[in-house]
Amino acid sequence: MSNPDGTPDTPGTNADATTSTTSTASATAAHPRFAEALRELGLDDLTGQVRTFPDATRTAAEAAAAIGCELSEIVKSLIFEADGVPVLVLMDGASRVDVERVREELGAGAVKRARADLVRETTGYAIGGVPPFGHRTRTRVLADRGLLDHDVVWAAAGTPHAVFPMDPKSLVSYAGGTLADVRERMA
User: Fold this and answer.
1) Which helix (H) or strand (E) holds 156?
2) Distance in angstroms (rounded) separating the CA atoms of residues 164 and 153
């Protein structure tokens, strides 16, 4: 049996039976750089939990719909520039980053969203597939405390078609993140 994308259907995956989207899990589902990072961190078992989808999960809404989870259970890995230096911000999929709060947390003069070329140069991944760790270069990481509101969160596994689950405390730890309150405040 095969999935709509032509890949073989893999029994025993962590696919949610309630979702209508078919997914597969395999050791090669993650981006090779991310799969290597998992191996280096001793997380080989996590490679088998990577889920791929025939349609992109580039946005948090697409990922949540494909997985069948709440939007806030998606982790967005976003690169910003703080005084010209890349910084990674991990934010739940239902919230927006408050750049002023990031600026204050970092003690920076100015913070702005990074351009796509800087994201790829810094992380080694394209926007929409940036994982929370396993990047080309080490960057400072801020993780919004709201991620800890969940038992499990889902993050990109290096491509716009692949995601993986992890408990948020471990995810923040593996990313080398500092917990901070950097989400936009509701008026």
Assistant:
1) strand 153-156
2) 8
Spatial contact of 114 and 132, defined as CB atoms under 8 Å apart: no
Place of tokens 């709201």: 146
- Non-local CB neighbours of 12 within 8 Å, separated by 6+ positions: none
Is this prediction's pTM over 0.85? no
CB contact at 8 A, 154 and 148: no
Burial class (CB in 10 A: 0-12, 13-18, 19+), 84: exposed
CB atoms within 10 A of CB 107: 8
- State pLDDT tens for residues 98-129: 999 999 999 999 999 999 999 999 999 999 89
9-34 pLDDT per residue, tens? 322 323 332 233 333 334 458 898 99
CA distances (Å), origin 7, targets 4, 55, 85, 167 = 7, 13, 40, 28
d(CA 139, CA 141): 6
